[in-house]
Each structure stands twice: as structure tokens, then as C-alpha cells.
Amino acid sequence: MTDHDPGVSASAPTDEHVTPLDSDGARDGGTAADRLTYEELAVGDRFVADRTVTFTRDSIVDFAGKYDPQPFHVGDDADAASPFEGLVASGLHSFCACNRLATEAFFGRVAFLGGRGVDDLRWHRPVRPDDTLSVDVEVVDKRVSESDSRRGYVDVDVTGRTSAGDPVVTWRVLGMIRRSGAVSPGET
User: Fold this and answer.
1) φ, ψ for residue 104 (rounded to 5)?
2) Which residues are paired to 54 by β-bridges?
3) Cα–Cα distance between 142 and 34 in angstroms, integer?
4) 8: left (phi over 0), alpha (psi -120 to 50) or beta
5) CA distance 147 to 72
6) Sign of the CA dihedral running 92, 72, 55, 44
7) CA end-to-end span of the chain
8) Which of 176, 145, 53, 178 is CA-nearest to residue 105?
9) E strand or H helix at 92
10) Which one, 56, 91, 136, 188, has least CB within 10 Å?
11) pLDDT class for 17, splitting at 50, 70, 90?
């Protein structure tokens, strides 16, 4: 595991580490011009991550020890009041790992200008050691910005799923996407 790994192991063939997105959000030598703009997206479009992530016992404990040291995240000896029988990943861990895949599947492929917020973050079931998750992103709403003609608002639903297809974590990203032909102030 590398320093920028969100604490999961890649379960699809990949390089030894995940290639970071460049400052323009592009991968593999792509450019910002290669990314999908607001006009190229439609409500109902669905993007699926090319790889999955598998949570290991060590990665669950390591993440929790750094960021969410609840007893049921750092060891198998949770007290009797715990709703879990044994070790489970922090919800923040599953969110972070799935967000990375959502970035690879969608946010790194579109002319993403940033987020306006996150709504409806929900955890549907605990993630345990050896669980493998996939991610899909669906465009659920879009509209042109009334205050800035260079961008449109695109809302997407992100879902992290088990290998059986059951939702584990879901959330809605309220995003801003560059419009085709948009120029920054001062450019002509």
C-alpha cells in the first residue's frame, strides 16, 4: 500500500499504485480538452469504475487508527453494545475509497470545476474484511448556471456496491461542469 492509497487493495489489474489525476483532472497524459463538457452529459448517463477495491483487515484497522478509532473499527473485541459482530470498516473509509473510484470513473473524465456540496450521504450496510466494492455514478439532474455562463450544474448519484450489487454507501454530489466553448474572463 502506498501513502496516497485510501486503505484498500486494488482487486482489478492496475499499476502498483494509483495514478493521481493531474491538476487539470486528466489521467494518462490526457488534457482538459479531452474531458466531457456539460453539453455532452445527459440525465441518465451512467459511469462505472474500471476497477474495484477490496478492504483488508489491516487496511480497516490502519485507517480507523488514524481517522476514526472506534472499538468496532480497530479490533475484533467490540463491546456488547456494538451493533456489529466483529470488525467493520469506518463509514468514512468506505466513503473515501469509493470517492476515489468515482473520481476515476466520472470526475476525472468530465470538465469538473468543483462541488457545490454533498447531499444524502448514507451507509446501507457495514463493510467487513475481504469485502470488495465497485462504484457507479449516474447523472440525475443538470441545468445551466444563471450566474456564470461558463458552467452548468450537474448533480450525480454515487453508489458503492458489494460484489452482489447491494448498495453499501450512497451520496449525491452537486457539481459544476465547464460548458463547451466557455472562456475565462480576459480570454478572447
Assistant:
1) -70, -40
2) 9, 132
3) 20
4) beta
5) 47
6) negative
7) 46
8) 53
9) helix 91-102
10) 188
11) very low
